[in-house]
Amino acid sequence: MCNRRREREMRRVVRRRRFFMVGNLGIRVENTKPSGKTAEKSKEIALDTVTEEKKEGMKPKKTVIRESKILITPRIGVKGKSIFEYRKSALNTWKNRFGFANVESIVFLLELTEDEETNQKLGDLVRKLAEEGKEITIIPYKMDCAKSGLVKSWITADNVKWSDSAASAGEKFKTWEQLLEFLEARTTENMVVAQLRKESVTSEPRKKENKWSHQ
């Protein structure tokens, strides 16, 4: 008789139990006593979990850079898979948009302005990349020679180098060849520039042949 009573009591307990999953995190909530306090607690857990899931979903996804050697530059008129352009208006968040785990070497084309705040943001970007151990070569693109001292103050690590060379005239490059000539004149055996030279072979648009050229 005692055993039967125990079995009946256990069945009643099982019937009263409630299991449910909260959100997408796989949290299993057990409600053995369907009281008001337990119900409120379950609601709190559910709301907190959904809030966390929304936060995770709202985080911008990073673009993983697959190339190990890249050129970081303002708008220069040339596009390529190893060329990544920055915008002055988005310097604070620019680095967070990309995953740099595969990147080993960087050539950084620097465009300084009269706006000291923007220049400071560029310096912060260089330092953050240097902290990840990337080999960085800074080349002046558009800047006053008098500002070279400012740039040199950013170089606090051995993996950052400054190319003490003349900046460009400020015009955009019309072809890959113009870009490469500019870079090769300011570097010596640079791995990034060598990679860009290889990439230019497939990236440079082919010129249409004149239909009369073979006649």
Features:
alpha/beta, 7 helices, 2 domains, two-stranded antiparallel ribbon, five-stranded parallel sheet, disordered C terminus, single chain, 215 residues
List the helices and strands and how they pair.
Layout: H1 2-16, E1 18-22, E2 27-31, H2 36-58, E3 63-64, E4 69-73, E5 83-85, H3 91-94, E6 98-99, E7 105-111, H4 116-131, E8 135-142, H5 148-152, E9 160-162, H6 176-184, H7 191-203
Parallel strand pairs: 3-6, 4-5, 4-7, 7-8, 8-9
Antiparallel strand pairs: 1-2
Helix pairs in contact: 6-7
Summarize it:
The protein is an alpha/beta fold.
Question: What does this 3D model show about the protein?
Answer:
The strands form 3 sheets. A 5-stranded parallel β-sheet has the order 5-4-7-8-9, with helices on both faces. Residues 206-215 have low confidence and may be disordered. It is elongated, with a radius of gyration of 30 Å. The longest helix has 23 residues, at 36-58. It is an alpha/beta fold. It has helices spanning 2-16, 36-58, 91-94, 116-131, 148-152, 176-184, 191-203, and strands spanning 18-22, 27-31, 63-64, 69-73, 83-85, 98-99, 105-111, 135-142, 160-162. The protein folds into 2 domains: 8-58; 63-203. Helix 6 runs antiparallel to helix 7 (191-203). It contains 7 helices and 9 strands.
